[in-house]
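Preliminary data (for renewal application), T4K complex.
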Amino acid sequence: MPKSSVDQLAINGGEPLFFEPLHAGQINSPQSNELETAFRGIFSRRFYANHGPLERELDSRLATYLGVRHAISITNGTLALMILLRALGLTGKVLVPSFTFPGTVQALSWAGLEPEFCDVDASTHNLSTATVSDRLGSGATAVLGVHLWGRACDVKGLAALAEEHGLILLYDAAHAFGCTAGGRLVGGFGVAEMFSFHATKVLNAAEGGCITTNDDELAARVRTMRTFHESETRADVAFRMNGKLSEAQAAVALCSLDEVEANINANKLRYELYKKRLAPFSGIEFIDHAYGEKSNYQYVLVQVEKEAAGISRDRLMQILRAENVFARKYFSPGVHRALPYREQYPEVLNRLPVTDELSDSLMQLPTGQAVSQDDVERVSELIGFILNHV
Ligand code: T4K
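Predicted structure:
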């Protein structure tokens, strides 16, 4: 039932608006009959791992979809990035945003590299040529951009900057499957890009990820490094690991790929409805996608401006949670404030004001297949009620 008085809020002892939690994770489950057929195939072939037919089909279909020479699937996005960083033979410092999922920066640490934290642009939430230029004096050898929320970084500007300063440029595209920059699908920018196919992503392999690149030699190194299996060995590399995608993961990813455009369209409808319904409320700033580009609308984010909204992001989230609306603080705190980085680099704590501001005010709203248009209406109405009454 919609709320008509503050007493009816669940935080004050009323009935929660939703019986079951409404999650912010993007759970797009593939059709169960298609999945059953794919899994029966795995069981009847008795071929479960080590570069089976489904993994090979997935790599080929991903390369075609993204318009790149190579797509190399790997167990998950974090491992994919770790392998890529080693395959590139990077050393020293890498320019990276702190405003990202910890996996981006942890991959650097696992690869024996040092993060050189950059701030992000306040309007795009991504690295920009200005925020990268600020840290060029650090002696970094590479730039790891993150296409946050599916909005691509300034790929042209960063490519020019990287070329001018002799930096290797690569991207964490975990959020950007199906998104474009300058009309071109993300996947072919920089020397290579990494995708995540975690269950909360628009392309869902349950767990999964891949590296995309147009560089044949780099692709050969990555393919060799992700496995100990001899038939895949193509290059001389110092590091190898088991980073293979199982046939079960590949089956989920292939079914999900069949439905990815339909899921993107459904995401867009939810996104647009939230945007329309929340527009009248001051202090709730809707985070838009890039104008004229294709987005996967995987994330619906608002910035809660405490003064104008009359409530803090954290208090609003607390009230929503009691109603079973599990909005999320992505990403909070910035990675530079988490261990081990806040102890390793205390000098960074006061020099990323935009990151700190976003970490304290952004809120991700529930979306994905499990969230109906009616749910979006009810969540928006609830937010409006809280802003007007609390
Ligand atoms: N780079 C970036 C920019 C990333 O965002 C990520 C991952 C990576 C790199 C690394 O890629 P992976 O190694 O993960 O492939 C989740 C995801 O686990 C993670 O993949 C994702 N980004 C991150 C943004 O979100 P958590 O720890 O916040 O997940 P969790 O379990 O709290 O779930 C989020 C919401 O989804 C919850 O409300 C529960 C719901 N949920 C989750 C799962 C797993 C479900 O409803 N069903 C589920 O099966 O990291």
